[in-house]
Amino acid sequence: MDEKTQIKMIVQQVVEAYLNKSLQEKKEQPIALLLGYQSPNPTAVLEAITPILTAYDVTFILSKDWLPAVNQFNGTSYVLLEETTQQDLLSLVEQSSVFVVPAASYRFLSKLALTIDDELAVWLSVQYQLLGKPIVIASDYVAPNVYQQIYAPHSVQERLQSYIRQIQADHVKWVSLSKLAKTVDDQFAAYREKQSLILARHVEKAYQDGLNEIIVPSKSKVTPSAKDLAKELKMQITNTDS
């Protein structure tokens, strides 16, 4: 075997090892996918989420209307939104890294923008936001299309745009179904590399809440003042890969 062939084989082995490691990381960090609202084109929604199901360990959060459609994905785990307690949903929030909403509604959009959590799907989304976890929402059936932009009253369009601007300001990704899988990949990678900043006020809040330990991601940065206050209050700041 000549030197050129050997180098080619080594490069191929390195690439394969990298891809396998990347896929394993995705499978070890589940994501949650909400199908809680009806869609005028459910087939397009299912096609858009298929690559995500292939790459990640996905847990569906379903309304009963979507259950027949999801049954075609053998082996995929799911919970029914109407029959799952908030405590169980919180456990899912803690375990998963990205929250995906491939079919939204105007009701969902407006309530999320205003942080009105009087329905379970919005409450769930807010929990992801409060933990700084990425949310990806497909815009196809909620953002005004060209004819709606031409004919709808300006006040209606501006109201919708204000909701969209607000959720984008809240770091919610607002994308088309065609870009859904790619955006999930990007947000997953960004979340894995996210560096949280631990301040003295965080230590003080934990102490007021009766905690003696703060568990933070391994890439987090702790300010000197936070370290000093933790030492003074005899609090532990623990890094974890989870």
Structure classification: alpha/beta
Run of helices and strands: HEHEHEHEHHEHHEHEHEEHE
Strand portion = 15-25%
- Give the overall shape, derived from the CA principal axes: globular
Strand order of the largest sheet: 3-2-1-4-5-6
In which range does the helix fraction lie? 40-55%
The main β sheet shows up as: 6 strands, parallel
Instruction: Round the mean pLDDT to the nearest integer and report it.
Output: 88
User: How many DSSP H or I helices?
Assistant: 11
Distance between the termini: 44 Å
Specify Rg, calculated over alpha carbons.
Answer: 21 Å
Query: Can you tell me the residue ranges where pLDDT is under 50 for at least 5 consecutive residues?
Result: 15-24
Number of strands: 10
Q: How does this structure look, described?
A:
The structure is a single chain. By secondary structure, this protein is an alpha/beta fold. The chain has eleven helices and ten strands. It has helices spanning 3-28, 42-55, 67-70, 86-95, 106-114, 120-130, 146-151, 154-169, 180-192, 200-208, 224-232; strands spanning 31-35, 58-62, 77-80, 99-101, 135-138, 172-175, 197-198, 213-217, 221-222, 236-240. The strands form three sheets. The protein has a six-stranded parallel sheet, with helices on both faces. Strands 7-9 form a two-stranded parallel sheet. Strand 1, helix 2 and strand 2 (58-62) form a beta-alpha-beta unit. The N and C termini lie far apart (44 Å).
